[in-house]
From TrEMBL:
Gene3D superfamilies named among the record's database cross-references: 3.30.70.270, 3.40.50.2300
Protein name: diguanylate cyclase
Species for this entry: Blastopirellula retiformator
Short name of any one Pfam family annotated for the protein: Response_reg
Catalytic activity as recorded in UniProt: 2 GTP = 3',3'-c-di-GMP + 2 diphosphate
Coiled coil regions in record: none
Gene: pleD_7
InterPro entries, sorted: CheY-like_superfamily (IPR011006), Diguanylate_Cyclase (IPR050469), GGDEF_dom (IPR000160), Nucleotide_cyclase (IPR029787), Rev_trsase/Diguanyl_cyclase (IPR043128), Sig_transdc_resp-reg_receiver (IPR001789)
EC class of the enzyme, as a word: transferase
Modified residues (4-aspartylphosphate): 58
EC number: 2.7.7.65
Length: 320
């Protein structure tokens, strides 16, 4: 027996809810597990409580009306398939609901089991293909981690959360020291393998809530969610050392590969460019001060990582 398709049905009319449950649970071709809630708030709570394969939602709810319901459900569950049901048969709403994140639109007036099941099947397949295409568009082809597009998208999301809810995060940028010498001495195959090890180790050293990405060439970034500057500095220095060790173990034992890093914490008024520039300035300072180290931009200037917690750590060694 195949795993059940986990369905959340959002509907405030008891009679309509019973009909949909009857149509789905009586299907012999598919196995559905249906949860019914009658408000948008309950639906969003259910989304946060457990994973879902499909959301079937009415456009008219006590606490939400129209296409805004689709938008809010899509924001809460961006990877979950959404099918809209409504009492109206409005083609304009059908198109708009898809633009807001739904895969399909069905009118209750002409609903039959075979129509509903076919729509669900097609919607699930389209959503899977969409998620695959989006993942590929956000993935660096060489290393398999996030690319610059994924980095920019996550930065926008984290900045939004910081502005709305004061959820702090830090940005760390890493650059492989003298990477050109790796290619010159060992060839581009070894150079590519080195970048793969850097990317793989970066992922392994981060939490599931963080994002690792390759920004281009030998430059990598880590977005550290819910992290303050001192913790981000310790994490970044550990990552730098672990990557050097793994390159020796996985690429060539004689490797003495090192990385430089720059770290900055989000501040009020930041956008992607200002936060990135502070971390990049710290990285540049690490390069200028001997490489194989992390430097920190504390918002006033750049300090070495080891002096961040010192009593005079607010005295910058290089002003931005």
């Amino acid at each position: 027996m195949t795993d059940a398709i986990r369905v959340l049905y959002v509907e405030d009319h008891d009679s309509d809810a019973r009909i949909i449950q009857y149509l789905l649970e009586g299907c012999v071709e598919e196995n559905f597990s249906v949860e019914w809630v009658d408000t948008l708030a309950k639906a969003i709570a259910a989304i946060h409580d457990h994973p879902l394969d499909l959301i079937i939602a009415d456009l008219g709810l006590p606490d939400g009306q129209g296409l805004s319901n689709v938008q809010r459900l899509h924001e809460a569950a961006p990877t979950t398939t959404i099918v809209v049901l409504t009492a109206d048969d409005d083609g304009a709403d059908a198109i708009e609901s898809i633009r807001y994140g739904a895969q399909e639109y069905l009118s209750k007036q002409s609903l039959r089991r075979e129509t509903l099941i076919r729509t669900i099947r097609h919607s699930l397949v389209r959503q899977e293909r969409l998620m695959t295409a989006q993942a590929q568009a956000m993935t660096d082809a060489l290393t398999g981690i996030g690319n610059r597009r994924a980095f920019e998208r996550e930065m926008d999301r984290r900045l939004h959360d910081f502005r709305r809810s004061n959820v702090h995060f830090c940005l760390a940028i890493f650059d492989v020291d003298f990477f050109k010498k790796v290619n010159d001495a060992w060839g581009h195959d070894v150079g590519d393998n080195t970048l793969r090890v850097v990317g793989r180790t970066l992922v392994n050293e981060l939490r599931a809530t963080d994002l690792s990405s390759r920004l281009g060439g030998e430059e990598f970034a880590a977005i550290l969610a819910g992290c303050r500057l001192e913790d981000a500095c310790r994490v970044s220095n550990r990552i730098r050392g672990t990557i050097s060790e793994q390159c020796r173990l996985q690429v060539k034992p004689e490797f003495s590969l090192t990385l430089s890093g720059g770290v900055a914490e989000v501040q009020v008024g930041d956008d992607l460019e200002t936060l990135y520039n502070r971390a990049d300035e710290a990285l540049y300072s690490a390069k200028e001060n001997g490489r194989n180290r992390c430097m920190v931009h504390d918002g006033k200037g750049i300090v070495p990582l080891e002096s961040l917690t010192a009593a005079d750590h607010r005295t910058p060694i290089l002003h931005s």
